[in-house]
Amino acid sequence: MVRLSKLIVIGNGMVGAKFLDLLCQSPARELYEIQVFGAEPQPAYDRVALSRLFADATPQDLELYPTAWYKEQGIELHLNCPIERLDLIHKTVQSKEGILHPYDKLVIASGSKAFIPPVEGLSGEGVFTYRDLADVDSIQTYGKKQKNALVIGGGLLGLEAAKALNDFGLTVTILEAAPRLMPMQLDNEGAQELQSQIEDLGLKVMTQALSERVEREGAGLRLHLRGGKVLPTDMIVVSAGIRPQDELARQAGLALGERGGIKIDHNMQTSEPNVFALGEVASFAGQTFGLVAPGYQMARAAVAVFNQEKSPFELPNISTKLKLLGVEVASFGDALEETPGCDALRLSNPAAGMYKKLVFHPEENRLLGGVLVGDVSEFGKLSQLVQREAALPPKPEELLFPTKSDSSPTSLALLPSRTVICNCENLTKGKIIETIRAQGITNLADLKKATRGGTGCGGCSQLLTDLLNLELEGQGVVVNKSLCEHFAYTRTELYAEIKKGGYHLFSEVLSHLGSGKGCEVCKPVVANLLATLWNDSVMSNKEIQDTNDAFLANIQVNGSYSVIPRMPGGETTAEGLIAIGEVAKEFNLYVKLTGGERIALFGASLEDLPKIWGRLIAAGFESGHAYGKSLRTVKSCVGSTWCHLGVGDSLDMAVTLENRYKSLRGPHKMKGAASGCMRECAEANCKDFGLIATEKGWNLFVGGNGGIKPQHGQLLAADITKEEAIRYIDRYLIYYFRTADKLTRTSTWLSLLEGGIERLKEIIVQDSLGIAAELEAEMERLVANQHCEWKRLLADPPKLSLFRPFLNSDDSDESIRFQEKRSQVVPLLTP
Amino acid sequence: MKWYPTIAIERLEVGFGGCVKLEGQQIAVFRYGPEEFYALSNCCPHKKQMVIARGLIGDLAGKPKVACALHKNQFSLETGKCLNTDLSSLKTYQVKLEEGQVCIGLP
Q1: ipTM (interface predicted TM)
Q2: CA of A489 vs chain B CAs: smallest distance (Å)
Q3: Which of A543, A808, A829 lies closest to B13 in CB terms?
Q4: Which residue in chain B is spatially nearest to A802 when comparing CA positions?
Q5: What is the pTM of this model?
Q6: pLDDT tens across A12-41, in order?
């Protein structure tokens, strides 16, 4: 029997885990018995996404390989178990408990730790680092009770930490020792643009701020800066850089790099042949790397060595694209103009919050690097140009002003297949195309799943999408977004075509734009578009309405219908209640409150619907549009009208909004809410649009949903007036009507919208497309045309002839039966 | 086969459906074209509810069909066969137009 070699991996972070994953997929897996020692209590997680824990994520969301994966792979995983000694002579490591573990091969991926500047008093209660889950936990526990925080360090990690604390509701000041933010990645102008945008968000930034000592005063802290300034604060988060965790190697006598870190060669080998180092602890050519992409490249190179292949590690192309505090920033190649003889082109547009710089080599005619702030849409393409050392276009300045057609797929088509598209996963164009073909992939989500591309930093998502579309078109697969066999249009395209043609009838739409007779898919969509566009009565196209729209009521399990009158903001009166009660009693209806704060009556027969509505309308009610893809309710708490905690009049807001949007029809149903204070009793955060009163006005959230896939709304605008809120919601809803696919709620639509909430803010709040006035006018037109569909129907008696169960008899439908439950009627179904 | 006049032709517009009661049976009648009518059982085999007449009609590759109002299961108007899943077929009835009336034949 062959004795397996013993492989020990020290460290279970992102890079250590990536190494294991790759090794397990390779033939060399068979040769080893593997033990892993991680110092943290949980297996490797996505450390890059740490700040998401302050927004919407749980630690489980960050998990990369669950404990079960190690078991499946036959790997012995020791968590909470730091290695304390390494003996190179006897080839053993010693764990915290003092147990010796022998190895044949050792991989050190112990990562790095936060660097704490030597500042007097910078430790103890109220002082935190920001490196791991435990740090996040301590910051959250302590920060809950605090108001403000200082972040020492204005680099990548410092800004991440500042974002997290800001999301957490603290007032944050960022201190950077250098004269600018992100000194390693940005030039002065780029950093200035980033700083001014961060300051616009309400964070303070101080550069050239050197901390001297920390004093304690009661529960508070006072940070003294060089120059005499004193900053009082509740807590301090130190994020001033990282240092490789290399003590173990130092003690054992492994060679170190000049600036720390375990010295490695192209094959990840340390000064000891059987010992390898990877990730942030490793020093290659005198440098350590604090990003995940080079770490993954190291893991790949090491696995190649384990398999006796050659894939030597090269000095990586360090590029970064990220969103810092809502500001998109990218830096790639020689961003700081360090190459001798280089030249730079700059474009600055402070009004638009945008700065771009490209660094060229004029003699060699190629791009060396660049900085992008505010608009990073070209990052993928530009960093590719650097990596490929491609020749520049005749007019290099055009790279600063990309036009839409410039990102044409032809340039992608011409890329050689060995071009790396996803740096984090070292995924080439060739491999991506191969996967698309082999697995018949047709959408981005599946492509990401199959290749893991775009799942690290996400910087290549746009390239992946373009590549996928290019390949699908090449295969002749028309990415089929047609409504159905009768219309070769998407909902969005059809919207534009119907508007252009001015069609009001289904027959016109079908003869001009479609074919055949239509079906249950396209008919309701067209019906809906006609209603969305013109707010005409749905009765003018009754033959294409789903049964709920055809009879202006929701069909129930036994073929009976429900009746839901509108109650804006959930308000009604004693008279209203009595009228509803009388109707319910007379027609023997089941009564229930809905989730949207109104009263629903169930069990109405088709023939009773007009009578019931006649009675309700006479009592002052109108249609609640519960049957349509339309505005259901704008839910509200009692707000400052009644509640002693209320800071805003949420009732007034909800009633105004519900009355404004009540007869709109969109791609799907819509729900709104207004809460009078941050306690959020109206649950505005899970609505298509939601308002929460603040001391200064209203915060407007959009794209929330409580349904199939619960999702919190995202902040579109903060501290706005009621008038502004109405304007923004007008624009937002019409933009949604125009651009959403069929049956798509705002939450899904927003998550699919390129650029997400930031893009939406540009369009809706900043009017970057110049369409705000047009969107508002369109809403005004729809509002002016609003009507109660039941009132209109009752005024047109011939249309009521279909409201009976049988065309040839006045009998009622005896197949619809009821039984009594809890003193009310409920359906009795045929078993 | 016995033929029963049920409703005047103009009682149903093209594209519409409705239910008629004949000898205690509920029969869904659809006007697919100006002179093209279909009649089928009104009871959807899925949940045994009398709702077929309230479904939307249309075509699948040129063949006439109806989609049930409750769960959009589709049935051929010509044969009653379920087109999207393996529900049992809807019973179909013969229709003819006579003296301005839609007449349905019962065996």
Answers
A1: 0.94
A2: 17
A3: A543
A4: B18
A5: 0.54
A6: 999 999 999 999 989 999 999 999 999 999
